[in-house]
């Protein structure tokens, strides 16, 4: 049997995509709250403040805040061993710089942890998932300001002290390299424009962007160090948006350029967080791009002292790249690439590449030799709720099954894989499009792109199938 006996089968979500209750019990506004709904064709808009003419999906999302008991019971029914979720910073510190935490916010997560404990589900907690208090973005200019390091560390310390009885696995930042990949990243709160704009229209200042990331590294390292001191059982994971890259041709220029992009975009963040220092190729690349890092000797020491314990990543697809010109493109998580003639794509044009997952697992384990956890993987599809309450989703079963087969092969190759969290185990709001109809879940939530619906939960066919996967420890196909 390839999968370890204590393999962490489960699912993953993020606060701003499920909780709703956006101002309830003292929660403050977060950057995610000012992003409107959209679609594949019509981009979401970042409005400088909430504007009543728009629909904001995070206001209610799937209303997990009022359904968490029912939802966790459904996870338990599937046999989840682990559940990855994020804590909303603005629920704990509504303005980010408040002197005292919001007790009501802390209580909500107390209840979530207790519910998970009841079913023996291991929490995997993301401290910041594309979601910082709006006040931090506006008043401090987000992660561009070194003061935010202290605010984050204070927030993280509050979580460590309050929830140490429940948590072993922490993730300081979701997809920390998003800020690397995307021209600028709202999630990191570095850039809130004065006028409304789409993600793509945000102004870019690479120097500020990479310095914001540098501040996040320091914040992560400080939190990891303090966390290890507070409780030696704590384990901290990197979380990398792994864009697995292939050369579209075997032209040596293509191979070299993909290799270099992989180093820069996929490996920089995990190198810093697992090896404790910037790799030579990134420092060189910064020099070429004219990036001046504000990194003192003392901060370099902090990076060395706060290294993570395990590697986690999101994997949805691979992309192809070339130095030659190809017309046909595909979309993808954060970024797309040239169409790969050997792969099919989802309705949202994301390539489907299970073998790429095995390749990625081998690549990252070979590089870091620490336990590896897949903290996001899944397929966004349009599901149909039938009159009898059934939802037939063979495409989702096929996608996840094919990826599990490759995970098993990677374990046979020797990779120390410790967990698999299917993304959006319950339907949630899509980040890229703001839609509900792009569904990932084993559990269907009856609400549409404009927040209408009964919010009733239904089991899709994949629900029973995933339950069997977990029962058989990955042996059911
Ligand atoms: C990841 C994010 O990048 O991709 C998730 O961490 C997100 O928050 C997921 O939901 C899937 O992307 P999308 O755009 O389909 O929601």
Summarize the structure in words:
The strands form five sheets. An eight-stranded parallel beta barrel has the order 1-3-4-5-7-9-13-14, surrounded by four helices. Strands 2-6 form a two-stranded antiparallel sheet. Helix 8 crosses helix 11 and helix 12 runs parallel beside helix 13 (394-413). It is of the alpha/beta class. Strand 13 (372-376), helix 13 and strand 14 form a beta-alpha-beta unit. Helices cover 38% and strands 13% of the residues. It is globular, with a radius of gyration of 21 Å. The protein has a single domain (8-243, 352-471), classed as TIM Barrel, CATH 3.20.20. It has 14 helices and 16 strands. The protein has helices spanning 15-18, 64-78, 89-92, 103-118, 134-140, 147-163, 178-181, 206-230, 252-275, 280-289, 297-305, 354-368, 394-413, 461-471, and strands spanning 8-12, 45-46, 82-86, 122-126, 169-171, 197-198, 235-241, 244-247, 310-314, 318-321, 329-330, 337-338, 372-376, 417-423, 443-445, 457-459. It binds 6-O-phosphono-beta-D-glucopyranose. 6-O-phosphono-beta-D-glucopyranose is lined by residues 14, 17, 174-175, 241, 314, 333-334, 376, 380, 423, 430-432, 438.
